[in-house]
Amino acid sequence: MNNFVLAAADPTTMLSHMALYGLAAIVEDGGLEGVRLSWSGGMSTRPVLSAPQATPDVIGELVRAHAQRLAAPDAWPARHVSDSESRGLMSPRLGVITTRDGWRSFQARRHEVLDQLTTARALLDLRLIAALGEPSYWRFNRQEQRLQDDGASRLEMQPRNQGSEFVGNRLRPLAAAVAARTPSAISDGLQGRNLRDEIGKDSPTSRTSTGFASPGPVDNAVAWCALWGISQFPIAYRTQGFADTSGHLGKGTAGHFYVPVWQGAWRTARLRSVVASGPLRRFAEHGLRPDRSGLTDEAAREWLRSRGVSAVVRFQVKRFGSDSAPERRAMIGELLKTGIR
């Protein structure tokens, strides 16, 4: 068994968790067998991906092949809302579509992409698209204005200023940047040996992390994997209110994110089941709900302990910038220990 350590990944940053999840999903989808996720021991714990063939060269080539496939001109991230509109068709948050014919055309184009991916058995692509959500055609406010953002994952935090959206302004550029690298450059970036923020131009104010970390340069291979980590957090649509996002607490666009840290090695399927579980959510709520009087749900704690969860990291989500196009960001995480030994 080989261990591939994301050595520069700090567990108090949401980006680190998302990068591990996305990397595991990408290489597993690429055919790497026996993939396991874990956290190293000691004072400076770090996320680890393990597999019999998890060498830096293999990992780098699998991530590059994945990015190259998604950067292709006929891949779904390249699809536009319409022939005259270059915004990403599969983005979960877009500007207002005002006409019935516009919605019909938009939905028909989305369904075409989904049908193609289903035929190709592109499970990870479908999982990401499903986890991102879609513009909500079913939600309206009291003025009968459509609340399109209510169908989107809370983890999708690309600011909406000047028409920006997730696929066109983040996913496409990152795919191209990672696809242009060598496998060794990709694995070096993931392991923290080198940091290149091509799309952010290595700027100290770079937003490449897309809300998963504070502004600053982020290696593009790390950011690519982190955005694909969203695929591991399913959502549930609601007729009243925002879509319910796994790993998110609170109403609307603020609140908190939460993720587990565990002992032992997990498959990606175990990760998805725990992330979407009620006990993890209830434990993460500790101290946030006045009606609970600050008491921890002991049944939830025991459920997590039995699965090796040693702690839950909770990240407050704050809003910055304008009210019309706010920038959301996960702050430094707070560790909630389960008491496992």
Number of strands: 12
Order of helices and strands: EHEEHEEHHHHHEEEEHHHEEE
Helix count from the secondary structure assignment = 10
Gross morphology? globular
**Helix content percent band:** 25-40%
Give me the Rg, rounded: 20 Å
- Taken as a percent bin, the fraction of beta residues is 15-25%
What's the end-to-end separation, in Å? 25 Å
Low-confidence stretches: none
| Overall pLDDT level | 93
Backbone structural class? alpha+beta
The largest pleated sheet is described as: 5 strands, antiparallel
What is the structure about, briefly put?
It comes from Dactylosporangium aurantiacum. The protein has 341 residues and is α+β, with helices and mostly antiparallel strands.
Would you give an account of this structure?
It comes from Dactylosporangium aurantiacum. This is CRISPR-associated protein Csb3. The chain has about 350 residues and is of the alpha+beta class. The chain contains ten helices and twelve strands. Strands 8, 9, 10, 11 and 12 form a five-stranded antiparallel β-sheet that branches. It has a three-stranded antiparallel β-sheet with strand order 1-3-2, covered by helices on one side. Strand 8 (about 250) and strand 9 (about 255-260) form a beta hairpin. The radius of gyration is 20 Å and the shape is globular. It starts with a strand and ends with a strand. The model has no long low-confidence stretch (mean pLDDT about 95).
